[in-house]
Design goal:
One of its GO terms (molecular function) is acyltransferase activity, transferring groups other than amino-acyl groups. With 249 residues, the protein is of the alpha+beta class. It is 25% helix and 29% strand. It has an eight-stranded mixed β-sheet, sandwiched between helices. A four-stranded mixed β-sheet has the order 4-7-5-6. The longest helix is centred in the C-terminal third of the chain and has 16 residues.
Amino acid sequence: MSDGESISMPTMLTPDITTERLLLRPFRETDAPAEFRAAQDPRIGALCGWRPPESVEESLETIRTVFAQPWTWAITLRQAVKLPDSILADNPQFAQLRDVPRQRFSVFGEPVETVEPEGDGHTVIIPADEPIGAISLQSSIGLTDKDGKPLDLSTHDQALGYWVAAPLWGNGIATEAANALLKFAFTHTEIETVWGRFKFGNAGSQAVMRKIGMSEYGEDHHHWMPLIDEYWDEKIYSITREEWEAQEK
């Protein structure tokens, strides 16, 4: 994808996007085990409005349907990264590792190889090119205006959605990926406005949207989340092409 090349939504292209640390790429069916390990943490679904997968087969079905939509990317790392030992204490999926010495583990608890112990005897790593989340631009937004009426959006409006594996929260992964998608949207497509929404109290998503230059548009109260059969109050954020270009100068 060259600078200045414009991609319209009907072409359904999902090009690889590279940042300093990340490679955003289309999902593959072989990603199912890693996607399951990343998405099964209930803390993620509780913020995104979906139930965690219960099996690798369920994750595979998600990859074949939801993640097969255009402009949906797996978030992966370009190089393997070591995580601090505190990850073991902060994330429940690592509880079983405390008594397993002299091994190195991937970020979701899979043994990689036997190595000399470091610190408490464990080294937790994130392998390169393994999905650690997902990010997308989608036209099915379900947004309402400031009076609660459905917004009449065109193909020039897209919604930004993302999630990142819980052990990686606080490392700027979502911000870096979202910044890359804004650049893609406003330099290579016909998109004029990117929208975002998050549940009241989701300080992490609010911080990400503010960091990438989005501003609060309004609120959507009693919004039905069909995947979990709940009603949420949500904040709505947005950024236009003009606003993005101004902040890039």
